[in-house]
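seq/struct pair 1
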Amino acid sequence: MFTSLHALKSLAIEMSNIELSIIIPTFNGARRIGETLHHLYGQKIDSPIAWEIIVVDNNSRDETASVVKSFIDDWRADCQLKYTFESQQGAAFARSLGVAEAQTTSLLGFLDDDNWPAENWIDEVIAFARSNPKAGAFGGLIHAELEGHEPPDFNVMKGYLTIVNRGGKPFQYKRSDKPRRIPPAPGVVIRKQAWDEVMPDPQKLLIGGRNANTMAAGEDAEMMFYLQNSQWEVWHNPKMEIWHYIPNHRLEKDYILKLARGYGLSNHLTRLSRYPSWQRPLVQLATPLFTVRDLIRLLYFYLKNWTVLQENFGKACRLQVGIGQLWSPYLRLYGWCHRMMLQGSPQKIVGELPNKIYSLALQKKCI
């Protein structure tokens, strides 16, 4: 009986015009995805629309599939909840599959499995999209939803945890702005037409998603820069609010320091993604200059602040960012050295480093 009702509801939604497809990639998200789905189920939509949610299981090894499927048959009538599986690891691949399976020709919304949208989030997405037809992408405010108490250095941690509040007035993220900015990835909405016109296949992205070894990431920023480099506008809409759930273990200082290092390690590839493909070889030629500049900055910062690094967590994080930036043009080499150190093989690094550098140079992947 439930299966028949679900099939009839799916058919009715498929025959209607899907205005919004929400894509949620998840990896081992059995303990997180349920609360996110509860917040989507509770959406209060004043102007009825047809919409759908696509949960993309990115090779999970827990009970993610069972949790999602437990919601499907008893889901709300104006929305179809779908589960799909992507075996190739990486958020970019999961998002790409979600887009491929989306029925919308209008809007794509992207949430992480720990993002809780406000009850009017969909209403505000639709209203802004209809009022700003030239907006190819737009994001909003991201608040923190902490599992436990707020730690003393939380204001320092916010940026690394993607807790972002850029004010209560809408504005356009312009390519000419200094510094150049883009909306944060959680809760961003992209027009399907803009996605089809601008986004490359995941295999062609410079940044493949967060690396568990180095904590380097940035594929979300790369995609936003592609949009910002196009004729589409990119906007901030403060009426779209989500809460980012943060468990206690992600507030540990060692974890934040790793995130800060990863943020720095993403610097070079993120820098490249800001430029059209024909300009990137010229940027690559300037790599030695970037390295010298970053080394001077890092040494200056360390000499100026070394006496306070133990008690000043903000400066300790900035030091890690600087170290990451210095290594960022040589990310593959850094990753290899990091793995050797984790394996307790410093002698192996010394012995094999020249061969590794030569190998990467031949592959043209060391810068």
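seq/struct pair 2
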Amino acid sequence: MPLDLKVFNEILADFTTSVISDARQNLVNEGKGGSNLANSIDGRIKVMKNSVLVEFEMEDYGFYVDRGVKPSGGQQYQGGDFDPMSDEEPFAFGTYQPPAKRMVKNLGNWMESKGRTFDSQGDKHRAAFSLALYIRETGIPKTLFFTEAYRKHFNKLPQALIDKFGFEIDKLYNFLIK
């Protein structure tokens, strides 16, 4: 049975909405509901001449909350597509001693968003740097809040959709960092 464009768009819109809704609910279940992270989860569908792209985005630290971070000593993530169908743990600190400036800056901003006040930028930097060292030593446990939602709804996509449009997981999914 042919799959018309209207049905196709409805299926993908439902998929996108369901993934976002479940990911947010999973954060609630983890005690992180109503957070900046939960509110930042968004998605959109781009239909092009020869392909379809479903994009999801969230605050950049969402990657780490979802998949976790191995404590120091692991191999550092080298970038590339983030595949929610994979069981690999891509994030770990390498042997580079000081935490990255971007991480320290983001942690400082995160602490401020949680109500932490600082007397000076220097105090903010020192607190964020200390938190970055703590994360490097202890890691971050994975929650799979997004990965589980994505897998659940991807596996519900109709086979006709997959057959007709030849979806491959790595082409269906594109994870963007805000």
